[in-house]
Amino acid sequence: MSSSKVLLGILGGVAAGALMGVLFAPSEGKKTRKKILYKANNSADALKGKFDSALESMNQKYEKIWHKEGELVSEGEAKLNSLKKEFKNLGR
């Protein structure tokens, strides 16, 4: 199971638990609706923050891989050119 699915499952469980706690708490309907709205907004903000963080992390990893790929290609070209020169020198 991927870590993103686990994270979404945990966040969903937390949100459902918070909602159930508010719904079963003894208070007036108007207060309960305000609490639900407040909790929903907080959960949405937290989820957005987690998503932004995950997206930034993936972006950084992509950039790192892209940079590394360029280095590997340059290194491979240098080795190939070196081998070509050695082959030419062997023929002389």
What does this structure look like?
This protein is mainly α and 92 residues long. It has two helices and no strands. It has helices at 3-24, 29-91. Helix content is 92%, strand content 0%.
Feature tags:
single chain; 92 residues; mainly alpha; 2 helices; 0% strand
The separation of the N and C termini measures 60 Å
Along the chain, the helix and strand elements come as HH
Task: Tell the overall outline.
Answer: rod-shaped
- The low-pLDDT segments are none
State the total count of DSSP E strands: 0
Radius of gyration: 28 Å
Can you give the mean pLDDT? 81
Q: Specify the oligomeric state.
A: single chain
What is the makeup of the main sheet?
none
Helix content: over 70%
Helix/strand layout:
Layout: H1 3-24, H2 29-91
Helix pairs in contact: 1-2
Short description:
This protein is an all-alpha fold and 92 residues long.
